[in-house]
Every structure is written in structure tokens, then in C-alpha cells.
Amino acid sequence: MALGLIARIRGERETVGIDVGHYSIKYVKVYHDANGKRIVREVDLEPVPAGSIINGLIQRRDSDDLAADNGGKKEKDGFDKLGEAFSRLMLRHQIDENVDVVASVNCGAGEGGVLVDRLTIKVPKNGNEDAIIVQTAQSRPPFDDQENVLDYEVVSREGDEVKVNVVAAKSAMLDSWAQFFTRKGIKLSALDVDIFGLLNAFVMTASDEDRKKTTAIFNIGDSKMSVGFIQDGAFHSVRSMNGGSLNVIINKLSSSLDISAEKCHEMFEKNDLKVIDDVAISVLEDAMDVAFEELMSQITFGIRYHSSAEDARPLERILIGGGGATVPGLLEYIAEKTGIETGSVNPFRSVECDSSVVDKDGMSIALSNIYAPALGLAMRKF
Predict the structure, then answer these.
(1) What is the pLDDT of residue 310?
(2) Is the peptide bond before 142 cis (omega within 30 degrees of 0)?
(3) Fewer CB atoms inside 10 A, N or C side of the chain?
């Protein structure tokens, strides 16, 4: 039920978080009362048609190419297919005009990803801080691309040094996503980054004690991996990876054991190797360990990035979010290789939900981590 005018005057709000990944669109609606209480009212997901999004970019083709491919009859491109999937989701969830909507784009090192890094910049006394930060960032790779749109957040100031988190995204990519949501009739309150949604889901649902631990949160999705760091109870930094995703495991199992992607996803979601019933468990474990080695190289890269920061403290915990959270044996493998406590984000265990969202047993760990970025987006109150 939509919130009326009186409810909004009292300070009540509803926010919808929409996380569009390479594998599925995740939807979460959160009710915010006037006193800061939050209740999850709706969750849902819709599969993304294969090939609609590649490397974070909606796949569009020139109109001439579309017509020429089929004798003048227009074929659907990724924009069309993704739009149809989104429409199916919206048929199940009408978004009232008073509802705030936050959508996310990929944090990734590729062409279609959002780049995030921490820089230390010297700003002379009485200098134009904003201009100096932007100009300095634009002079350093990978932020020196003229097609990037830059934004930044000041983390701290000490003397003439300013520490900032710089965010860069291709203007064409942002325009494409903004155009997509506009065409679907969605008025966005904000366009965010998936890893920030995941970090917010953790910060908003974790205990004070858990937030104080220096924590690395890896978002392992179908085609992307990124990591965010929490230190002293607050966001510290983010890093995107060039490799590492569920596709690493899927490709290994497909090439060596002829296991389909659909069967792999079923195994991940159920966290059960026995889903693959025509391959010996020992053979399956050996193949997955080989894939884990490649994932581990990216996780190690992320950990080294954090440890190289001047103000970094030793990691106390690693948390896995996204589809990677329930890959059988992965968390144990990471813990063994790093010697660091490893678990999953699983934010829905700590947030109140309507009875229509979860039953008495609660939400599965797999779904909790898949929905986590969208939940983090929806936890924002405007």
C-alpha cells in the first residue's frame, strides 16, 4: 500500500533499491518510519536475458545494423531484452510516485564499470580545494580518461594533505543507464554503485562490535568482483578487480566436467555439491579447487591493496557477498589460505521483514546475499 500524504508529513518514507547485475535484477522495498525503524516490505528478482549486459554495459546496436540483420525486420538488442525483463518485474511491483528509487551500476575495472580509488592530494593554504582535487585526479590513470565523469568524497584533512575517495564512470555508460530507467518510467532519486549498496547493507545491519572490526567485503557476482573495506566503523576504500567472478568456477566446471551453467547456479544457491549427481564429489572438489585458486589471486590482490594504504590496519575479517557467498567450500578455502576469519554478509538475518517476505525460517543465506546490495540501496531514506 502506498504511503499517503499524512504519513509522509509524519516523516514516513519508502525506498526501493534496484540492483541490476549480469545474471538478475534484484528489487527490495524498505519502509522507514519517523523514528528510524526499517521494515523490508517486498523482495523479488527477475533473470536478465543472456547477453543483455556485458561488462556492466547494456548492449545496444545501431538501428541500421538491427534492420539489416533480418531483412528490415528489427531484432531485439540487449536494451530491448533487458527492458522486457524489467517490465515483467514492474508488473509485479507498481512503484508509486511518492516512493524513492535508488538503482546501482557495476563497480568494476572494465569499460562498463565504475572506478573507485583513494588518493592523497596536497592542497596549499587558501588553494581552491575542489579544483585541485579534480585536476589532480584527472592527471592520474585511470582517472585521466576524458570520457570519465568524476566525483569525490573527502575522507580526512591533515595539514595540507587531503585524503579523498575518487569515483569515475564513463559518461556514456551513465547516460545509457539513466536513459534506460527513464524509458521504463522510473524517476531515480539516486544512481549508486553496487559495492556501496553491499557495504551499506552491512553497516546498517551489523552490531557495533562487528562494525569496529577491520573488514574486507568482497562482492562476487556472476561476471564481476569488487571489494570494499570497513575500518573504525566507517567506509575506508573500495577496489575493483579485472578478474574473479562466478564465471571462473562455471567455466572451469563446464570445460572439464561438462556441467551446465544452470546446474552450477543451482549448486551455488543450494550450497550443495550433491546437486551435481553425475560426478564424483572428490572429482568435483578438485575441479573447484583449481577455480578457487584463480579467485584467490584476486582476493589476495584486494587484501594487498588495503594493506598498502598508509592508515590501514590488519584485516580481522573477510565477508563474502553476492552469489559467491554460498559456493560450496569457498569460504573455508579463503579462510584456510588467508588465516583470516571468513563468513558471508547475510544482512537479512538482522533486519525486520514483513511476513510476506520471509516465512518463520527466515530467508536463505543464498538469497540474503544476492539481495544484499539492493537492500543496502533501499536502506537509504530521503
Answers:
(1) 76
(2) yes
(3) N
> H or E segment at 331?
helix 330-338
Average pLDDT of the residues in 305-314: 87
Q: Which residues are within 8 A (CB) of 189 and not within 5 positions of it... i.e. 6 or more apart?
A: 15, 100, 101, 102, 382
Cα torsion 53, 166, 345, 304: sign: positive
> 25-34, 156-165, 282-291: which range is least confident on average?
156-165
- Whether 19 contacts 67, CB under 8 Å: no
| Pairing label, strands 24-32, 190-193 | unpaired
Q: Which CATH number fits domain 5-378: 3.40.630.30, 3.40.50.970, 3.30.420.40, 3.30.470.20?
A: 3.30.420.40
The pLDDT, as a whole number, for residue 115 is 78
CA distance 217 to 57: 24
d(CA 302, CA 69): 43
- Within 10 angstroms of residue 95's Cβ, the number of other Cβ atoms is 19
Average pLDDT over residues 148-171: 89
**What's the CA gap between 192 and 103, in Å, rounded?**
6
Which of 81, 103, 78, 77 is closest to 186 using CA atoms?
Answer: 103
Q: What is the pLDDT of residues 42-54, one digit of tens each?
A: 999 999 999 999 8
Q: Report in angstroms the alpha-carbon separations of 295 from 89, 256, 291.
A: 32, 17, 7
Closest residue by Cα to residue 118 from 310, 347, 357, 362? 310
- Model confidence over 208-240: pLDDT tens digits? 999 999 999 999 998 889 999 999 998 888 888
pTM of the model: 0.88
**In this structure, what are the phi and psi dihedrals at residue 31, rounded to the nearest 5 degrees?**
-90, 135
In whole angstroms, what is the distance from residue 164 CA to residue 173 CA? Answer: 23
Which residue(s) pair with 101 in the sheet? 16
8 A C-beta contact, residue 16 and residue 28: yes
Question: Cβ distance 198 to 116 under 8 Å?
Answer: no
The percentage of the chain sitting over the pLDDT mark of 90, rounded to a whole number, equals 69
Q: Of 382, 207, 239, 226, give the one whose Cα is nearest residue 309.
A: 239
Task: Please compute the mean of the pLDDT values over residues 326-333 and round it to a whole number.
Answer: 96
